[in-house]
């Protein structure tokens, strides 16, 4: 099968023909129909995070089950599914206390060491799966706890976005922050995750929803999907603008970019007693500076959100329903479709901040 493989860091993706093993007892084989280009892959391709190579990149995919291993009862061939990198073991302390998104037992969902690899090059070299998924491929062979079954009437290109960016943004609002109706919200970044956080705030009944970005066309999309106000951060200090709009700061600030500067701006945009949620993926080892005074005297809270604090088998079907009943706007978020062969063009456009979400079509 064809797949987009990262062979060196930093580097571009190579389209290669690689072989896929048969499903082990707990594995499912998917035919991928669509995959979204998410910024996290770029962090690895651009060497901001380390990774073991070679690996098939991609982690935002939707497709159809082709075959299942003998222990798999949850899905059957023909089922439509979304994959999710929050692969859960189901029996560790974190899984059992409502935090499967930070499962402590990832080896439980991998093949045992010494087993034949799931993916291999023609010369037998093992090929890894980015985020335990490897979604930029015609087929994915993954653990059954990496998929959620969805309604057949959900278009699979829209469904793919729910696999990472949408769940991350909505979940940061619904599940990590649990905002109250009427709360004021600022969202830094109007890419796939930021626009999803804006929509989460709208759906959750936020009062003011302020979208911050440096691209006016992205801010325009943010307005379409629910921002009540926009701030172009290249026109001046966004913190001052937000404080002025909200008489001293927002109740909740979401950082959906992954930069030290915007994390600190989000923090400074939140009011005393407010919460700042870090959703973006920062370069590995990057530190954020905040003053102890604000944490202590002003009771400000800094909270991380890993993949929107998801329990994805519960959350993603709900997000699918929200799309199909018209509350969640996904059509507006897809800016381009392209074949797998053009994937490096898609990532170069992302580096240039062109477009919102690009979707790879496999059919
Ligand atoms: Zn992602
Ligand atoms: Zn677990």
Break the fold down into its secondary structure elements and pairings.
Blueprint: E1 2-6, E2 13-17, E3 19-20, E4 27-36, H1 39-45, E5 55-56, E6 61-68, E7 80-83, H2 93-96, E8 119-120, E9 126-129, E10 139-143, E11 147-149, H3 156-162, H4 165-177, E12 185-188, H5 192-203, E13 209-213, H6 216-225, E14 229-232, H7 238-245, E15 250-255, H8 260-269, E16 270-278, H9 292-297, E17 301-304, H10 312-324, E18 334-339, H11 343-351, E19 357-361
Parallel strand pairs: 5-9, 12-13, 12-15, 13-14, 15-16, 16-17, 18-19
Antiparallel strand pairs: 1-2, 1-5, 3-8, 4-6, 4-10, 4-19, 6-7, 7-11, 8-9
Helix pairs in contact: 4-5, 7-8
Residues 88-89, 92, 94-95, 103-105 line the site of one zinc ion.
Description:
This protein has 363 residues and is α/β, with parallel strands linked by helices. It has 2 domains: 2-149 and 330-361, Alpha-Beta Complex (Quinone Oxidoreductase, Chain A, domain 1); 169-306, NAD(P)-binding Rossmann-like Domain (Rossmann fold), CATH 3.40.50.720. The protein is built from 11 helices and 19 strands. It has helices at residues 39-45, 93-96, 156-162, 165-177, 192-203, 216-225, 238-245, 260-269, 292-297, 312-324, 343-351, and strands at residues 2-6, 13-17, 19-20, 27-36, 55-56, 61-68, 80-83, 119-120, 126-129, 139-143, 147-149, 185-188, 209-213, 229-232, 250-255, 270-278, 301-304, 334-339, 357-361. Strands 4, 6, 7, 10, 11, 18 and 19 form a 7-stranded mixed β-sheet that branches. A 6-stranded mixed β-sheet has the order 2-1-5-9-8-3, with no helix packed on it. Strands 14-13-12-15-16-17 form a 6-stranded parallel β-sheet, with helices on both faces. Helix 5 links the parallel strand 12 (185-188) and strand 13. Helix 7 (238-245) packs parallel to helix 8. The protein is globular. 52% of the residues are buried. The model has no long low-confidence stretch (mean pLDDT 96).
């Amino acid at each position: 099968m064809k797949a987009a493989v990262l062979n060196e860091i930093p580097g571009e993706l190579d389209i290669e023909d690689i072989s896929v093993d048969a499903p082990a007892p707990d594995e499912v084989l998917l035919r991928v129909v669509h995959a979204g280009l998410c910024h996290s892959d770029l962090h690895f391709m651009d060497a901001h995070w380390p990774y073991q190579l070679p690996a098939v990149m991609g982690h935002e995919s939707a497709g159809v089950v082709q075959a299942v291993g003998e222990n798999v009862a949850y899905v059957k061939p023909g089922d439509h599914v979304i994959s999710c990198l929050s692969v859960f073991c189901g029996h560790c302390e974190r899984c059992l206390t409502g935090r499967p998104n930070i499962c402590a037992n990832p080896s439980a969902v991998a093949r045992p060491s010494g087993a034949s690899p799931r993916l291999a090059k023609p010369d037998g070299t093992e090929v890894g799966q980015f985020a335990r998924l490897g979604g930029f491929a015609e087929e994915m062979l993954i653990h059954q706890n990496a998929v959620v079954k969805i309604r057949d009437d959900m278009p699979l290109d829209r469904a793919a976005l729910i696999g990472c960016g949408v769940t991350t943004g909505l979940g940061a609002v619904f599940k990590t922050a649990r905002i109250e109706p009427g709360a004021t919200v600022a969202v830094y970044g109007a890419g796939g995750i930021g626009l999803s956080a804006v929509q989460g705030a709208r759906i959750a009944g936020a009062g003011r929803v302020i979208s911050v970005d440096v691209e006016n066309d992205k801010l325009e999309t943010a307005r379409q999907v629910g921002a009540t106000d926009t701030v172009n951060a290249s026109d001046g200090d966004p913190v001052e603008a937000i404080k002025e709009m909200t008489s001293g700061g927002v109740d909740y600030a979401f950082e959906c970019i992954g930069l030290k500067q915007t994390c600190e701006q989000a923090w400074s945009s939140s009011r005393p007693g407010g919460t700042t949620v870090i959703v973006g993926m920062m370069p590995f080892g990057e530190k954020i500076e905040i003053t102890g005074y604000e944490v202590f005297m002003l009771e400000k809270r800094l909270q991380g959100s890993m993949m929107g604090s998801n329990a994805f088998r519960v959350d993603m079907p709900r997000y699918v329903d929200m799309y199909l009943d018209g509350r969640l706007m996904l059509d507006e978020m897809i800016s381009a479709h392209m074949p797998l062969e053009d994937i490096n063009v898609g990532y170069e456009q992302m580096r240039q901040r062109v477009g919102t979400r690009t979707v790879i079509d496999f059919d």
